[in-house]
User: Which sequence fits this backbone?
């Protein structure tokens, strides 16, 4: 389209060539007079529109012509006739010549030459079109006369519109005529015209303006069009708006956009037409951005059914610059209005009818099609959602956006999965959104069912518990929301696939989802239960917890079948009974265990009195079948004690949670009624009636708390010494647990019927055997003694569980006197327990014994269990020598041990670990490798400052003193076989003994409390997530069925008690114990413990251990995310319990009261720990180290609060926390430095042996929290470490560097930590360099210079550390130099792009960097060569990786110097092989050049980087540079 007035190029839809006028030199149109204008316009209707008319006015005409009304029309017709166009035809359009271009040329020539003729023609044409029929004739396509042939051509009006001199006048005439035909079609305001196009004058007029070749005055025409548009009816308005790009063109886009914006403000019904017009305009970036803003503002006001059109326009108009804004505005303004009512949807009577508006389906379709073709939208959506971190800011549309991306953009499915998983773990996306999405838009979800199912599969398979729980919930929603058979089969099929994956946590989550479905929809599952029965094929590899879930599923289905009168699907119940009976009768324990769990699960479901779904007749049949199955199971367990233990424990757990049928309870009562005859003996006046010998051992009553009135005793020694009855003792604790549960159920929670068991004595070997006769006992007798002590220990532990639960609960069922008596006896039993474990641990040093398993841990129990304990024959030292005879044998043992461990976990193992392997695994004894490494880097379980008991000297083990507070390492190795203490036992910490001695001595209580603290330590360790391991599936021993939240609720009342015991221990450390040393013996004697002189209590030892355990428990609770995030009140209670009694000025807070902020509480805790550190520094390095680790936990916890603020935390509080965190980090570094610099050389027991790991932790804390880690590293590596002597004898003068913990014994751990910290800093610098390279903004020279200096400092550190190998010749140090040197080079290679980019600007600094670096690479070369020669395998194993890194470094330097050398030269060559002293190795000396001895000084500015060739004997490649 051409605009003659402004010569503006046409739109892209037309040829871009400018219009060429028919006349080469068109004459200027003369300005007409006013008289002619009046005459010419006399017959023009007076319209209400003020249309601008720039046409010339006609000249005055003669009077005769003016009086003839038909004269103008005749004149117009004659002009057209002269041009070859016949107008006066009775009907139909005018007949025009074939050559329309000639016609337009003729008219233009005449009108240009005679302005009066032009005026007459316009007046005539105006008169002619007054009649509707005539106007219609000139608007319709005309017939062309081409040698007698007639064909359709353009209309006369369109031909006239292409005549430049009259175009604007014709346009105005037509626009003035347009309002006359608005009402020709009687259509509604929002309807479209029903007339044909050839009958609709208004639409015919509009069509004449489309795609004109040119516009004479586009601005005037555009203004006139929009004036008409304001009065048009809706249907015509929409058509005109949609035609604007074809009518007006591209020259007036600004006017069009502004005018259409005003139209939208006045009439929202024209939105679709306006949007369609916008999409057809060829807009520049500025106008396009304005159009996007206009469209976005219409989202709220547009009619719902028209929203998809608007959305499609917005998304297709998206560019990288505006896509984010479009997505953000759409999310903010659009609201899905689908019906959401889970229950009403579930019971909807109008089944099969869609409850979802088609509009939302169209919106999702528009979104999906746009996302499919524009990947930039997917990326921006994910970025937008990633920035939302609050749950309330997420909407249902966010779920749909993720689902649409997941379905339509396959390449971004992983990104969607990761984002959704991250949001779920953080808690930003909650399951309520998916519930609203699925139940509020079922028909829409049905089209995306596969995508929802795939995401559910991904989430359920995640190892993070929150994600897997979310996946379980999604499976439940999908099953509930889609009742059709196909969908439910798909859900079940996916769950069965998870079960067969072989991944433990995935199996557990899938089974949990199945249990949830079976408990809610058992009737719906019965017709498709064939999909579930497949999980029975995988049961052999299931853990105990998963076996429970499997049988829960089938029991729910079976119970539903039994309650159904039609007995549809009864084969499920029959199959369940058949499988369980087969498993119970199987002699292998792994199958019998499955059968026992199935039996008891059936018993709990069928015999549950709360189950009201069954009819009375079916209930009777159910519990009768359950009783029969119970009898069968009991009969099958008699020959295998471990099966009976499992049976009793499982039955006890069921009775604790459910009420079973009276007939079943009666049968269980008969079972526990045999307890007295099996395990108890009668006493006469508190003494045994006869003193028999058992295996030649004399018996004695121990620990009699009831004195002479005790009527019974626990008959352990006679049973342990009997070969036929000894196995019954294995079931003693489990049997008693069942007995206590039955007593509690039958006596309203009281254990009054069996309280005699709490104080009754225990029949054990005489204490005389432990004094002088121990060495005279034979092996069998020693085993009987050890087993008797072991069974007594577990009997007492189960007593504490039973009666401790009564302590933890309410005492409504017991009197105050009974309560006090129970507390006193429990405390004495706990003292008995400490005594027995110390004694047994001491005897096991000489008499190694595999203890029988009394508790089936889910993960550690063996599949087949021997009936009798096994004795390990032979000398322990010889066995250890055999195990370490060769390196290949060690590798083989490691592989077999690893395989054994795996098989044990799966429950398929048929053998047990040897006692030595068990002890080594637990750290109770040290292998040869550990002993070699004890100089600086001990193993994880290395002993602390407490005396480590050697297992190699049997004569010495009994003669030495037995420290009560010492860790029982040999028992800890087999602790998983012991009966676990329940959580309720921790309530004992809150009680104190009523001491009746001469004075109150807290030392007497601390060993007892230490025992409980160690158990709490163990349980906290089990509950705390391991950062490097998968989600733990096994429940910690003693906390079966207790979630983390419940565990926190049970122990949070202990916080003040922990603080009280901590204060007592610290007070003893500071002031010592001035009380009577016989108090422990007095209390032990009152508890019934026999008098053994070797049992002693060390006040400093027990006090320090209580402090350590308390601080460890405090740290675990403070840093465990579950403890912090689940309950904020628990965190506050913990912090309040460890506040200082006096607030120091350094804390910076005026008050640390209970109303203080959380920042004040953290500051107070840290101040309290600083006081503890001051006391610990005067006592022990290991104790002080534990305090520093506790300080670090405070900083870590505060950082977590800052990263993820607690609910209700304001911005001001966060700012205060940030400032406090910086202060505490500085203090933590100072505390660590104080610890490292303290004068320890006179206070260290056994030197630094076994303390290397702790030293490294403290060094790590010091470096990580200091003000400048890089500067501290440089000072340590370049100035302090070189002064450390390699001699094992370190004098006081050699501690001049200030760190007393840095000596030859601990040099290796310092060396390792400095390397690791330096690598961490280098990786941070690499990231910083990458950000500078990727930044679009040019970097500042100062920024680049600073980064170069940091890189140089890091290089200096690693070079200094590597060169320390010239002084310290230990293999471990050299191994670390080669290993970490290669890693450093690997990381340094990533910064070469940055160096190349800035080489010209910082050339001297970079060259010096390489020069310094080559000093370290030379040393690495020498270390590798010497290691090969001396066959040091620990070093040679690191050489290949290091060598590859050095080779890449060599050629990257070469490439850098080659590409960036401006007049500089460099060279490569071989270097001499020298040893660490610098002497040339004679066998590899070069003789080609006599002057080559001074090769390294050849140039002053030379840089050489050498690398060892693999096939070289010691030579290397080198790169030289001459500046």
Assistant:
């Amino acid at each position: 389209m051409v605009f003659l007035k402004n010569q503006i190029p046409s739109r892209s839809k037309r040829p871009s060539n400018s219009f060429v006028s028919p006349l080469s030199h068109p004459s200027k149109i003369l300005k007409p007079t006013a008289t002619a204008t009046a005459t010419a316009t006399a017959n023009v209707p007076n319209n209400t529109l003020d249309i601008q008319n720039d046409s010339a006015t006609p000249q005055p005409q003669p009077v005769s012509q003016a009086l003839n009304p038909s004269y103008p029309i005749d004149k117009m017709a004659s002009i057209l006739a002269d041009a070859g166009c016949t107008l006066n035809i009775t009907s139909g359009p005018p007949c025009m010549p074939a050559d329309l271009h000639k016609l337009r040329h003729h008219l233009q020539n005449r009108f240009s030459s005679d302005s009066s003729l032009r005026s007459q023609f316009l007046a005539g044409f105006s008169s002619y079109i007054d009649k509707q029929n005539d106007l219609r004739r000139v608007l319709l396509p005309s017939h062309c006369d081409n040698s007698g042939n007639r064909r359709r051509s353009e209309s006369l009006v369109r031909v006239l519109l292409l005549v430049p001199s009259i175009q604007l006048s014709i346009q105005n005439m037509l626009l003035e005529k347009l309002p006359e035909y608005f009402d020709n079609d009687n259509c509604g305001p929002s309807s479209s015209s029903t007339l044909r196009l050839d009958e609709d004058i208004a639409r015919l007029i509009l069509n004449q303006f489309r795609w004109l070749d040119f516009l004479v005055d586009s601005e005037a025409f555009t203004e006139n069009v929009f004036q008409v548009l304001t009065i048009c009816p809706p249907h015509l308005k929409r058509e005109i708006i949609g035609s604007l790009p074809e009518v007006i063109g591209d020259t007036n886009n600004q006017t069009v956009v502004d005018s259409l914006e005003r139209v939208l403000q006045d009439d929202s019904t024209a939105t679709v037409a306006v949007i369609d017009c916008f999409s057809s305009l060829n807009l520049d970036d500025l106008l396009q951005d304005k159009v996007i803003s206009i469209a976005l503002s219409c989202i709220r006001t547009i009619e719902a059914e028209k929203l998809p059109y608007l959305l499609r326009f917005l998304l297709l108009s998206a560019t990288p610059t505006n896509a984010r804004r479009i997505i953000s505005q759409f999310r903010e303004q659009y609201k899905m209005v689908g019906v959401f009512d889970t229950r009403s949807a579930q019971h909807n009577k109008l089944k099969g009818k869609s409850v979802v508006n088609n509009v939302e389906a169209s919106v999702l379709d528009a979104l999906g099609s746009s996302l499919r073709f524009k990947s930039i939208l997917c990326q921006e959506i994910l970025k937008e959602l990633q920035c939302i971190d609050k749950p309330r800011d997420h909407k249902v549309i966010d779920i749909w956006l993720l689902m649409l991306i997941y379905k339509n953009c396959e390449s971004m499915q992983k990104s969607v999965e990761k984002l959704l998983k991250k949001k779920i773990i953080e808690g930003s996306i909650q399951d309520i959104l998916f519930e609203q999405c699925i139940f509020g838009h079922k028909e829409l979800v049905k089209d995306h069912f596969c995508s929802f199912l795939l995401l559910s599969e991904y989430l359920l398979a995640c190892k993070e518990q929150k994600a897997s729980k979310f996946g379980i919930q999604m499976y439940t929603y999908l099953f509930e929301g889609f009742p059709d058979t196909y969908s439910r089969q798909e859900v079940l099929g996916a769950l069965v696939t998870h079960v067969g994956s072989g991944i433990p946590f995935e199996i557990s989550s899938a089974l949990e989802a199945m249990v949830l479905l079976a408990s809610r929809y058992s009737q719906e599952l019965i017709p498709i239960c064939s999909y579930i029965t497949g999980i029975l094929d995988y049961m052999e590899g299931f853990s105990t917890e998963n076996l429970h879930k499997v049988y829960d599923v089938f029991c729910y289905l079976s119970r539903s079948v039994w309650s159904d009168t039609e007995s549809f699907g009864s084969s499920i119940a029959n199959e369940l009974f058949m499988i369980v009976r087969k498993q119970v009768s199987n002699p292998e324990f792994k199958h019998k265990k499955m059968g026992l769990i199935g039996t008891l699960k059936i018993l709990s479901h069928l015999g549950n009195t709360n189950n009201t779904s069954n009819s009375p007749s079916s209930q009777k049949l159910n519990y009768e079948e359950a009783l029969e199955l119970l009898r069968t199971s009991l009969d099958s367990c008699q020959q295998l004690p471990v099966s009976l233990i499992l049976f009793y424990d499982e039955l006890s757990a069921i009775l604790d949670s459910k009420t079973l049928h009276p007939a079943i309870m009666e049968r269980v009562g008969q079972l526990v009624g045999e307890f007295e005859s099996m395990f108890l003996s009668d006493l006469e006046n508190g003494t045994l009636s006869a003193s028999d010998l058992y295996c030649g051992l004399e018996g004695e009553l121990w620990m009699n708390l009831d004195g002479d009135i005790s009527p019974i005793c626990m008959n352990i020694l006679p049973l342990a010494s009997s070969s036929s009855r000894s196995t019954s003792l294995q079931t003693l604790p489990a049997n008693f647990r069942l007995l206590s549960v039955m007593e509690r159920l039958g006596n309203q929670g009281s254990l009054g019927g069996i309280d005699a068991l709490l104080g009754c004595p225990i029949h054990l070997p005489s204490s005389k055997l432990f004094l002088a006769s121990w060495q005279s006992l034979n092996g069998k007798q020693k085993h009987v003694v050890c087993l008797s002590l072991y069974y007594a220990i577990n009997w007492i532990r189960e007593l504490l569980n039973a009666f401790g639960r009564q302590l933890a609960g309410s005492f409504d069922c017991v009197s105050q006197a009974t309560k006090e008596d129970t507390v006193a006896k429990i405390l004495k039993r706990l003292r008995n327990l400490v005594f027995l474990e110390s004694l047994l641990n001491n005897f096991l040093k000489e008499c190694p014994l595999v203890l029988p398993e009394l508790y089936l841990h889910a993960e550690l129990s063996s599949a087949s269990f021997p009936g009798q304990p096994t004795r390990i024959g032979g000398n322990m030292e010889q066995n250890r020598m055999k195990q370490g005879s060769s390196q290949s044998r060690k590798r083989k043992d490691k592989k077999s041990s690893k395989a054994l461990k795996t098989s044990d976990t799966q429950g398929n193992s048929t053998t047990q670990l040897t006692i030595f392997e068990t002890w080594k695994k637990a750290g109770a004894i040290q292998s040869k490798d550990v002993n070699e490494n004890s100089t600086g880097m001990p193993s994880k379980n290395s002993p602390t400052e407490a005396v480590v008991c050697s297992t190699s000297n049997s004569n010495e083990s009994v003669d030495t003193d037995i420290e009560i507070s010492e860790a029982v390492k040999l028992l800890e190795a087999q602790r998983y076989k012991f009966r676990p203490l329940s959580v309720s036992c921790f309530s004992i910490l809150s009680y104190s003994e009523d001491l009746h001695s001469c004075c109150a001595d807290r030392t007497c209580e601390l060993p007892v409390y230490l025992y409980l603290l160690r158990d709490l330590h163990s349980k906290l360790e089990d509950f705390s997530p391991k950062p490097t391991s998968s989600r733990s599936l096994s429940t910690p021993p003693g906390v079966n069925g207790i979630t983390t939240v419940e565990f926190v609720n049970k122990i949070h009342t202990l916080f003040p008690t922990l603080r009280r015991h901590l204060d007592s221990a610290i007070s003893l450390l500071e002031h010592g114990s001035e009380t009577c040393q016989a108090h422990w013996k007095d209390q032990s004697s009152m508890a019934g413990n026999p008098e053994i002189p070797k049992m002693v209590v060390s006040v400093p030892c027990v006090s320090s251990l209580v402090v350590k355990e308390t601080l460890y428990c405090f740290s675990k609770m403070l840093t465990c995310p579950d403890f912090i995030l689940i309950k904020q009140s628990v965190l506050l209670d913990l912090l309040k319990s460890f506040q200082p009694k006096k607030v120091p000025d350094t804390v910076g807070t005026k008050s640390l009261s209970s109303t203080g902020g959380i920042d004040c509480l953290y500051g107070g805790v840290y101040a309290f720990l600083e006081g503890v550190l001051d006391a610990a520094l005067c006592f022990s390095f290991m104790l002080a180290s534990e305090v520093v680790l506790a300080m670090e936990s405070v900083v870590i916890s505060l950082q977590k609060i800052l990263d993820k603020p607690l609910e209700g935390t304001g911005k001001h509080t966060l700012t205060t926390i940030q400032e406090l965190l910086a202060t505490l980090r500085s203090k933590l570094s100072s505390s660590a430095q104080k610890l490292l610099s303290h004068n320890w050389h006179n206070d260290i027991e056994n030197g630094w042996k076994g303390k290397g790991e702790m030293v490294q932790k403290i060094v790590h804390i010091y470096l990580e929290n200091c003000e400048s880690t890089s500067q501290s590293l440089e000072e340590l590596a370049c100035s302090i470490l070189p002064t450390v002597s390699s001699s094992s004898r370190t004098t006081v003068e050699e501690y001049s560097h200030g760190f007393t913990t840095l000596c030859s014994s601990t040099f290796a751990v310092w060396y390792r930590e400095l390397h690791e910290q330096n690598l961490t800093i280098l990786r941070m610098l690499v990231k910083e360099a990458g950000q500078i390279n990727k930044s679009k903004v040019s970097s500042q020279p100062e920024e680049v210079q600073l980064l170069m200096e940091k890189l140089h400092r890091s290089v200096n550190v690693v070079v200094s550390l590597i060169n320390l190998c010239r002084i310290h010749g230990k293999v471990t140090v050299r191994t670390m130099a080669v290993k970490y040197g290669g890693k450093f080079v690997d990381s340094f290679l990533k910064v070469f792009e940055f160096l190349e980019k800035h080489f010209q600007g910082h050339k001297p600094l970079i060259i010096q960097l390489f020069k310094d670096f080559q000093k370290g690479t030379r040393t690495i070369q020498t270390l590798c060569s010497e290691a090969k020669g001396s066959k040091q395998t620990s070093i040679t194993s690191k050489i290949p990786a290091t060598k590859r890194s050095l080779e890449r470094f060599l050629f990257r330097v070469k490439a850098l110097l080659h590409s960036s050398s401006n007049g500089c030269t460099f060279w490569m060559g071989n270097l001499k092989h020298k040893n660490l002293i610098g002497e040339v190795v004679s066998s590899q000396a070069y003789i080609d050049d006599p002057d080559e001895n001074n090769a390294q000084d050849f140039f002053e500015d030379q840089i050489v980087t050498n690398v060892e060739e693999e096939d070289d004997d010691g030579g290397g490649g080198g790169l030289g540079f001459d500046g």
The chain is about 55% helix and 5% strand. The CA atoms of residues 200 and 771 lie 123 Å apart.
